[in-house]
From TrEMBL:
<protein>
    <submittedName>
        <fullName>Carbamoyl-phosphate synthase</fullName>
    </submittedName>
</protein>
<dbReference type="InterPro" id="IPR013815">
    <property type="entry name" value="ATP_grasp_subdomain_1"/>
</dbReference>
<keyword id="KW-0067">ATP-binding</keyword>
<keyword id="KW-0547">Nucleotide-binding</keyword>
<dbReference type="InterPro" id="IPR011761">
    <property type="entry name" value="ATP-grasp"/>
</dbReference>
<feature type="domain" description="ATP-grasp">
    <location>
        <begin position="120"/>
        <end position="311"/>
    </location>
</feature>
Length: 390
């Protein structure tokens, strides 16, 4: 009898990590993303194709996914690697659940977690330390925020996944009040913004706690990690990560996620503030995160455990991890090194040291070379274009 296939929405490094975790266990994988950079360099470990946009073609995407599912004898397990797809699946969960297997928290919670204002409200409600934050809707509120701010500070979108469709930045560093007054109206036309204090500390101050709770809020998988490097250096995503159990973060994060009833796969990111030693909330993501492909080599395979649970295999909880395994997004690690080397923050010896010990690469794979080639060429091309503008 055929097993359940898997359908992955996302062909970035996040989605490719899911493909690799499942296909290498013999699971039939189908992967889709919108047309654009991911239409090139498709994974050879999955059947890949272009799909309608979850932002602008929701009804077409719904029809498309129904058509895909009808081809199989058993319901596919549905995975999402990006916020746009998570919101889409959650919005149409009733219809999609007739065709697919997936597990998400309540839709209202997903919407709240993607809204920086609502996430801040949750932090206040549960007394979670966070950066000092200002919500600005007019000039008077901007002046008030400036009077209380310490510079430099950061400007962030309330809805990051929508903002990055226009401006590909997680945050903008602001040096002084004059710059803030100048750029605030320029960026605000792309979406609502918040102003936040800049928590000091380098890339290694960032930590994540990830959980997988089942329908009854039983913990089936647990993982913690520490960043070593990110790209871009100041406000970026993982470039070099290490598996590391941080008991105090487990004590902070797991009860919170359980209290919020965040069933399915979720991740909290914290930054440790050197001024007071507190772990301060950065964000909560109700989905698979970029560096989840580190979990399998570290003994806690989130993607496969999710598959086993949803297909009725009753997987045993995976709550112990192997520490010291490194996850390397090679081209981003190299570009980060170049930037840090220019600032005398990293040497060639430091860079090469990052390859010692047990490691897993985000995309580099002999059995699936094209995603790595695609991503590397794209990153290097964009870096060259930026350098030319300088």
């Amino acid at each position: 009898m055929p097993s359940h296939p898997a359908v992955v929405l996302d062909l970035s490094a996040n989605g490719v990590g899911i493909i690799h975790a499942l296909a290498r266990r013999g699971i039939e994988v189908y992967a889709f993303d919108t047309s654009g950079p991911y239409s090139k360099g498709k994974s050879r470990l999955a059947s890949c194709a272009v799909c309608p946009s979850p932002l602008t073609q929701q009804k077409a995407l719904l029809s498309f996914l129904k058509g895909v599912a009808r081809k199989f004898e058993k319901k596919p397990v549905l995975y999402a690697g990006a916020d746009d797809y998570v919101v889409f699946i959650s919005t149409y969960r009733e219809e999609l659940s007739e065709y697919y297997l997936f597990l998400y928290p309540d839709h209202s919670m997903i919407v709240d977690l993607l809204d920086k204002k609502k996430t801040y409200d949750l932090a206040m409600k549960y007394c979670i330390p966070t950066a000092k934050t200002f919500f600005v809707e007019n000039d008077d509120q901007l002046d008030e925020a400036i009077s209380e701010l310490e510079f430099p500070c950061i400007l962030k979108p309330v809805y990051g996944h929508e903002f990055r469709k226009h401006i590909n930045k997680k945050a903008i560093k602001i040096q002084d009040a004059n710059q803030l007054r100048e750029v605030f109206p320029l960026y605000s036309k792309y979406g609502e913004l918040i102003i936040q204090e800049l928590i000091p500390g380098d890339n290694q101050s960032f930590y994540k706690v990830a959980t997988f709770f089942d329908d009854d809020m039983n913990l089936l998988a647990l993982f913690t990690l520490q960043k070593n490097h990110q790209f871009p250096v100041e406000f970026g995503t993982g470039a070099h990560i290490v598996s590391k159990r941080i008991p105090e973060l487990v004590e902070l994060g797991v009860p919170l996620l359980k209290e919020l009833k965040l069933k399915g796969v979720n991740m909290i990111e914290y930054k440790k503030d050197p001024r007071d030693g507190q772990y301060k909330l950065i964000e909560i993501n109700p989905r698979f995160w970029l560096t989840h492909s580190l979990t399998g080599p570290s003994g806690v395979d989130f993607a496969y455990t999710y598959y086993l649970y949803l297909t009725g295999k009753n997987p045993a909880p995976q709550l112990e991890q192997i520490d010291g395994v490194q996850w390397i997004y090679l081209v981003r690690y190299f570009l980060t090194f170049l930037e840090k080397r220019r600032n005398d923050e990293m040497t060639w010896r430091d860079f090469l040291k990052g390859f010692k010990g047990k490691k897993v690469f985000a995309l580099l794979a002999l059995d699936d070379p094209m995603p790595f080639i695609r991503s590397t060429s794209s990153h290097l091309w964009n870096a060259w274009k930026r350098k030319r503008k300088e």
